[in-house]
Amino acid sequence: QVQLVESGGGLVQPGGSLRLSCAASRNIFGIYVMGWYRQAPGKQRELVAAVTSIGITNYADSVKGRFTISRDNAKNTVYLQMNNLKPEDTAVYYCNAALPVSTINYWGQGTQVTVSS
Length: 117
Hints:
Radius of gyration: 13 Å
Helix content: under 10%
Oligomer: single chain
């Protein structure tokens, strides 16, 4: 079992920045794919960014060039640096840990990000 705890959400003006953190209860980065997803009201949950165990990253087209996913293996923490935020980035952001070639995955509780003037 893996527990994921997100933090760092909040209210920010358009053009501003936030950094989300996701702390895992144990060291899983050498195996699991870590991802950030988001879900806006009335919309499906979508992948925002992910990083594999060997450091390969993937981003949604809508956030490329603005968001950066990274991880600190020593702290068992994955981050999502979000710059130049737009109102359409408003959503609940969820951290996910997925074990490749399996159905095993874990979710955090989510953190609200609101971009508004």
